[in-house]
Amino acid sequence: MKETKIVLPDKEIPKQWYNIMADMPNLPKPPLHPGTLKPVGPQDLSAIFPMALIEQEVSTQRWIDIPDEVLDIYSLWRPSPLYRAHRLEKALGTPAKIYYKYEGVSPAGSHKPNTSIPQAYYNKKAGIKRIATETGAGQWGSAMALSGSLFGLEVTVYMVKVSYNQKPYRRIAMETWGATVHASPTSVTNSGRKILEADPENPGSLGIAISEAVEDAATHNDTNYALGSVLNHVLLHQTVIGLEAKKQFELAGDYPDVIIGCCGGGSNLGGVSFPFLHDKINGKDLRVIAVEPISCPTLTRGQFRYDFGDTAGLTPLLMMYTLGHDFVPPGIHAGGLRYHADAPLICQLYHDKLIEAVAYGQTAVFEAAITFAKSEGIIPAPETSHAIKAVIDEAVRCKDEGRQRTIFFNLSGHGYLDLTAYADYHSGKLEDYAYPDERIKESLARLPVIG
Is 192 a member of any domain? Predict the structure, then answer.
């Protein structure tokens, strides 16, 4: 029998996270204070983050210890399995070897608890009672609601309105774990009220939801803010994925030639690729590909410059590939990946040509998802399906060239709470929407000018 899944015992859960800041040839430029445009210090972040996470955010130490309490909860689903996609390979008729790490085995059904668990832990230790956060498609909100229930924290989630309506099951999951969920923009915060006054039918965006969550946290002493992507400490926590995968590839006697991950804010791509990028930085021949939607093409069509992380301009300015902080992606896009920018770490690596990027329309993405589901059995989340489309393209290229390569991707979550998107695809409701150049130019023209 061919080996299909490579499973590690609980004792092989990584005991440390890997910090790529220790090895990057160029570190990202420092975040800037939104008022003074000076580099931010720990005191500027302490109103919304516990000091332990602030220290991780700025650390250049290569290895960061994972607390025992976090490891104990990780063991509910970690280590996650690495699969060899024999049936997909056969369906494609490719000589390529395809592997995927399956993060859908977590209680929340995605990779997001890898960081929500430690974030809840550090906030609980700091005496915080409540977490305010945002979510787009709902994976992060679900993960944070789960973590709040495990650590006895209240959780308030500002969910992008279009996803709130498209994905009711994510909202129900959050509420089942005890979270309060608002459709953003709301009338609960000053930021939300201003947006609604200007546009009562605004479909929402991650930038708007972040503004509301940050304002909530900053105006309540017992509340902190938690973010599911973009920031350095978030990508740090996700490296458990790649670290486990390296051990599993050793057991398989193989190593990836190409690593592929969907990319919205960057946590999934960073988690699966950073431990391998360590090898590339040190001379290993390896390609890493970020995959995004053509409706929110941050790496492929954005500009590399300072921008706010949110719509209202409450957050520090970060050096990112951005479409502009007031960018509002179209509501027709069924998946997540709707953030206006990407993690500074991902952006710097892309700028330094250590990673590549491609963008696809959603109809081709769902075609790829169905090909995967019919061969491997798992219905993937729409976000992950972007990566699957790139995997299939790479595998077909191997077939055309008659070359065998090892392709590895992160199946970052299952799609069983996203079946409405599949229903829309089957009924022909989904359309491809490439964001117009003139709209991107308009949004970028409103970016702050940093001398």
Answer: no
Which is nearest to 225 in space by CA: 111, 54, 339, 345?
A: 54
Is 318 a domain residue?
yes
Domain annotation covers residue 168: no
* Antiparallel, parallel or unpaired: β 303-308 and 317-322: antiparallel
Owning domain of residue 427 = 68-109+233-445
Buried b (16+ CB within 10 A) or exposed e, 261-283: bbbbbbbbbbbbbbbbbbebbee
C-alpha span between 132 and 19 (Å, rounded): 26
Name, in order, each residue with C-beta under 8 angstroms of 451's C-beta and a sequence gap of 6 or more.
none
Amino acid letter for position 190: N
In a domain, 402, yes or no: yes
Beta pairing, strands 97-102 & 406-411: parallel
How far is 233 from 231, CA to CA, in rounded Å? 6
**Is residue 73 scored above 90 in pLDDT?**
yes
How many structural domains does the chain have? 1
Q: pTM of the entire structure?
A: 0.95
Model confidence at 334, pLDDT cuts 50, 70, 90, reads low
CATH number at residue 270: 3.40.50.1100
Mean pLDDT value of segment 174-198: 96
